Amino acid sequence: MNLDLARWRRRAEWAAITGLAALIALCLAWELWLAPLRAGGSLLAFKAVLLLAPLPGLLKGRRYTYQWCSMFILPWFVEGVMRAWSDSGLSQVLAGVEIVLSVWVFAAVVCYSYWSRPSLNRPAG
User: Fold this and answer.
1) Using CB atoms within 10 A as the burial measure, which of 1, 27, 35, 109 is most buried?
2) Could you give the C-alpha distances from 46 to 15, 49, 93, 109, 114, in angstroms and in order?
3) Residue 2 region, left (φ>0) first, then alpha (ψ -120 to 50), else beta?
4) pLDDT of 79-108, one tens digit each?
5) Which of 48, 17, 50 is nearest to 30 (CA)?
6) Residue closest to 98 by CA, chosen among 11, 35, 14
7) Does 18 score more than 60 pLDDT?
8) Structural domains counted in the chain
9) How far is Cα 71 from Cα 110, in angstroms, rounded to an integer?
10) Where are the extended beta strands (E) located within the chain?
11) Alpha-carbon distance 58 to 2, whole Å?
């Protein structure tokens, strides 16, 4: 494998992990302290627990996890769009951040999946 390609794959890997960790932190902070739906916190904080599902596979560099994570992250994007449209104030801003982070994770996992495809390991010819 090309050394430069390996470097880009590693960057995509860490971008995905960092983006997912930031999205988990955002979901927890948003629904527990910053702008919960109900005073004192919201059960929507459990959406952050769901984001823990792909984390072990991402940390181990499992290509299959990166592939299914590209579809798994889409509900957070949809929620961000819906709440950016319907909410106001801080919640609307946090929804915008959720959109950015979900797109970040999506792009990173797609790039990792692309740059780690098995056809790159075959000899040319």
Assistant:
1) 109
2) 23, 5, 20, 23, 31
3) beta
4) 999 999 999 999 999 999 999 999 999 999
5) 48
6) 35
7) yes
8) 1
9) 10
10) none
11) 22
